[in-house]
Design goal:
183 residues; alpha/beta; Immunoglobulin-like; 2 domains; 2 helices; 8 strands
Length: 183
């Protein structure tokens, strides 16, 4: 067994750290850029979703700020992109199941609020299936009840669906800048 000096160990750890940062220890990269409209003006709000072609990787959704910029951590590899600004300036609907559910029997003894409790022993929560379907399609249900920042501008509906948008990018190591111009 060879005894190493503390300085050698520190150099080895520093070299490994630099290598991880350069090559990328994780399978994600920081992607940022600006989304602009056909007229060159920034798209003033919305969501941008990167959907990896490799279905074993998880889609990622980021927010497009009112100045058109975005930044998101995206899995490496080829990704299809969707841009959706339909909720800009509007409060999203409440989450599935909000305001409903069982609230006990009414004065006649009949259940109020839509039937039996949705907990243990009750029927499955339909909101779970809807949430799964939304995640499969790369849609992120916020349910925050807050209006999304920005001013709504109509864009071609093809951009709402990553399969129809025509936006495909290869995400590689390190930080990347990807500016997107909508037609």
């Amino acid at each position: 067994m060879r005894i190493r000096r503390p300085g050698q160990i520190l150099i080895a750890v520093a070299a490994l750290t630099v290598m991880c940062l350069t090559v990328g220890c994780s399978g994600t990269c920081t992607v940022s850029g600006t989304v602009t409209q056909a007229n060159g003006q920034p798209l003033s709000g919305g969501d941008i979703t990167f959907v990896p072609v490799d279905t074993s990787k998880t889609p990622v959704t980021g927010v497009i700020k009112p100045d058109g910029t975005y930044q998101v951590s995206v899995p490496k590899g080829e990704c299809k992109v969707a841009i959706d600004n339909r909720n800009v300036g509007k409060a999203p609907p409440p989450p599935v199941g909000a305001g409903g559910g069982y609230s006990g029997p009414d004065k006649s003894g009949a259940p109020k609020g839509g039937g039996p409790p949705m907990g243990k022993g009750g029927p499955p929560n339909p909101g779970d299936k809807i949430k799964e379907k939304m995640q499969e399609k790369g849609v992120s249900p916020t349910g925050s009840g807050q209006a999304q920042a920005g001013t709504y501008v109509k864009i071609d509906p093809k951009y709402h669906d990553h399969e129809k948008s025509g936006l495909v990018f290869t995400i590689s190591g390190g930080s990347q800048k990807i500016d997107i111009k909508l037609d």
